Amino acid sequence: MSYEVLAQKWRPQNFSDVVGQEHITTTLKNQILSERIGHAYLFWGPRGTGKTTIARILAKAVNCPNRIQETQFDAIKTAEPCNQCEFCHEISHDRSFDVIEMDAASNRGIDTIRDLRENVKLSPATCPYKIYIIDEAHMLSTEAFNALLKTLEEPPPHVIFILATTEHAKIPKTISSRCQDFDFRYLEDEKIIERLQLIAQEEGISADLDVLTLITRQSEGCLRDAENLLELVSATGKDLTIEAVEQTIGLGSSSLLQELAEAITERGLAKGLKTLSNLTKQGTDLSQCLDQLIGYFRDLRLLAIDSSLSEQVQSPKSDIPRLKQKAEQMSVNRLSRIIKILMHTNQDIKQYGYPQLQLETALIQLNSLEEGMPLEEVIGKLSALEQKFDAAGLSALSTQPSVIGSHQSAADSRKPENRGTVPEFGDINPSYDNNRHKGLPRTENREPRTIPADSQPNVSHGLRDLKDLPSFWDEIKSKLPVMFKHALPEGSVPTVNGTNTVEIPCSPSNFFMITDEDQKLVADILKQEVGKPVKIELVASNTVSESVVSEDEPKETEQKTRMMRTVEAQDDPQLKAALDLFEAKVVDTQ
Description:
By secondary structure, the chain is of the alpha/beta class. The protein contains 26 helices and ten strands. The protein folds into four domains: about 5-185, P-loop containing nucleotide triphosphate hydrolases (Rossmann fold, 3-Layer(aba) Sandwich), CATH 3.40.50; about 190-250, Helicase, Ruva Protein, domain 3, CATH 1.10.8.60; about 255-365, Up-down Bundle (Zinc Finger, Delta Prime, domain 3); about 380-570, no CATH class. It has helices at about 5-10, 20-35, 50-65, 85-90, 110-120, 140-155, 175, 190-205, 210-220, 225-235, 240-250, 255-265, 270-280, 285-305, 320-325, 330-350, 355-365, 375-390, 395-405, 470-475, 480-485, 515-530, 545-550, 555-560, 560-570, 575-580, and strands at about 40-45, 70, 75, 100-105, 130-135, 160-165, 180-185, 495, 500-505, 535-540. The strands form three sheets. The chain has a five-stranded parallel beta sheet with strand order 4-5-6-1-7, with helices on one face. A three-stranded mixed beta sheet has the order 8-9-10, with helices on one face. Strands 2-3 form a two-stranded antiparallel sheet. Strand 2 (about 70) and strand 3 (about 75) form a beta hairpin. The termini are far apart.
């Protein structure tokens, strides 16, 4: 006798053997028992989920004369075929004249359907019903579907049509509306593993749960694929191991994949590139490797959301404690962005090729991936900034566009002798957080701002009166951070309002430079000078341009073209930070 593959040998022969499609088998059995059998069925769903198998079982059940189950006291009627009679035997071995299976992919023309229309008029040769099983029905041409319409709607009473397809959307509505619609679904991993355990036990194959779980994950919910993979790896020997399965299927080594995943989570770019090179040297299918990485980080994200979601994790159960520990160290937001980058890389590999180059690029992107700022936090910061403008008597809508849309180059608004004294946004300044104006979150390891030792007030002169602040403001100003001093108009002097409130004038265009920490620093310095708490309030000042801009520079500005002014505005470091943050561009300059 010739060898029979596992998928054929273990093909279900009755409804109770079908795995994972109980919602379909229960309905069909009830129809058979109540003798309310339809004249046309449409089975649709993914490959390898039992469409043709259930169609054959249904053909045997409606034609089997021995659907009787013997019990201890009586014989009851059942919906299961006996698989012993001549009808069942011929149908199981594809030798019945009354059960015709057609492949619509190779018989899709109108001539085939015309012959079918003539043949359905003939009575069955031996069975009670003549059954037509049309596989891959979506491949029929439009003319063939139209020719089948009338026969499908009102066939002879001895004819049953069963259409099977993986592309339900390609079946015309006129066809599907004439059929009873049954959707086949992907099988759950647990049910596939149970089936594989039964097959392995009967076939004498030694495979532990981790091996069968790995095979099941590669089958993507299709039992036939899982059975074929089990047969493929069993050819290497009856004792299956993880390493043998990975080598046979073309998966990456578990240890190397684990190293690659750790390199991504720990931002170890060099380690990740070396591991990827080792995977390539082993002949690993990098597309499969990428699928495994996506599945790994998907499991991490589930556990990062809630540890109670461990039942939905696809990784082996023995790995769940380690995954939970790793998930506690990463945010859901970062894991989602990692998965998104890997999925885009997978798409680029399928479209453009070069898998190693694409994965190297993805590793570089993942290494530089920072924790994102939640949208609610961004909105909160913008709202706080708007409130500051309102408190200062300005409108954020009238001030901000003037900076972006009608910007005058910062180089044209400073005195020549002052140029170069104001630090750029990329300069290193211990009292200024550069990331703040790049749209990036503040660094977590930033030390709190303290007053330098050399800036401590001289205790020899005793406490001062706050009302005399204009007289010693220059001394206080020399102790302030550079960016704070740059935000103050030249020659401006604060005013004392009440007993403990100091109003400090500030340029509207530089309002955003002064942080809450800056204001607290000024309040602390003044408190040490006057001996009592001081409240700081920022007041918008519009006198900057009169005191800063020289008389010769407007002439130079007038001689510049519109393009030159636009280029200078785009190169301005302050404006560039705002443009990058809001993904904006300079429209016009004045």
